[in-house]
Amino acid sequence: MVLDRSNLLASLNEDVFDHILEGLRVRDLSSLSSTCTWLREACMPFVFNYVHICVREPIQIEHAPFFLPASAKPYVRSLALLDECWDQQCGGRPRPKYLYTDDFLLCGAYPGAALAERLQELPRCRSVKMHKNNDLKHGLSWDTLLSVLSVPHLRKFELRFQCFCPALRPGEELSVDSLAPLTAFRYKMEYPRDIWFFPSEVAALEAVLGKLCDTLEELVLPSEPAPMSTLATLSWPRLREFVVRGSPSTWGALPAPLVLLFSAMRGLRAISFKINPLDNALPPAVWPRGFVHSFPWPELERLMVSYPDPSDELWDHLPPTLRALSLRCWPHVSSQRRFAFLGRMHPPRFGLVPTSSDLLSILRHCEALSLDHLEIEYRVDDEDEALLRYVVTTFPHLTSLAVLRYRRNPPIPEECGPCIRRHSLRLLDSVVSNCT
Ligand SMILES: [Zn+2]
């Protein structure tokens, strides 16, 4: 008797069978799908659920068979396009003629109309990520961006390490008729880096966000080109998570404090201010002392503020809904050391890292909160033990606590980190023991 294993699998509850397939690695799915026609069809949605394509030349976009096999297209739900165009091989240095573009700022590997056609051929695709893996000033043209953002079935768009319309071509205008009803728009640039942005980048973001604000639930922006004044004038009825990353380089002339600029985002559940200071300039207070305003985010659950300012009035107004608070450096000091070792940034400026006293001062304004998660990063001073004791006694419901603690000057080298962690744990343990 021959055992028909495919029929045995077919007798499984459909949800159970799908759950098994979901747990398999892609190479295992590929092996399984090679066994018979029935299993191949069953595996296809899982094999091609996420597709990553390296784009080196425009013909990969223009010629449909070079983009994806036709048999895979019905199953793609999430697509990532990595820009590795040959024009980047010269590192952006002037050369007599680029292969696919006349302006190195604008990638020539993504002809807009052809890219829109390819995405239209993926009827279940909801998420597109476009990225590159270097810090070259090289990005996507308005034509390319508009083609992607106009695909009606798209819901999530991410652009990583590529500039958002760094230049306009002659005669090009930033006009937008309609865009896909995106729920997530994530634009992330590499950090640390030299601080720069392009005027057309700001204008293009203004044009796009003005159309997307009604549907967005998640918004991630770099601080430098973020059109702050425009963000303040739009309504954001569905926005739940907002992240701003970068430096305060362009915030010297902010039209209003951050608490006012983002006050139209009333439904926010999560806010992250991931700001890395420049030279000796700390990020501005979210709510400057003396500024009269009402708290704009009554349902806030998660808050991250980098290089927090003890004089910030934000700490006096946090709502009882808040469950997770992160007061840290961005990037973490340990990451800054690593970047400095690689020559990608200056060594961390320890003088700007908040002290135990700073964080104790801030947390004393938060004693009414019932936090589940707390993250603190600071330099040790005379209030170190008081801070740790305060954390343990004031927030007894914590389910996670991250403490990144740096010994007073001279800063300890990275290899001594575990000693610090052991010391902190002993101290916390003794504090907990004394409290119970
Ligand atoms: Zn390119």
UniProtKB/TrEMBL annotation:
Gene3D superfamilies: Ribonuclease Inhibitor (3.80.10.10)
Name assigned to this protein: F-box domain-containing protein
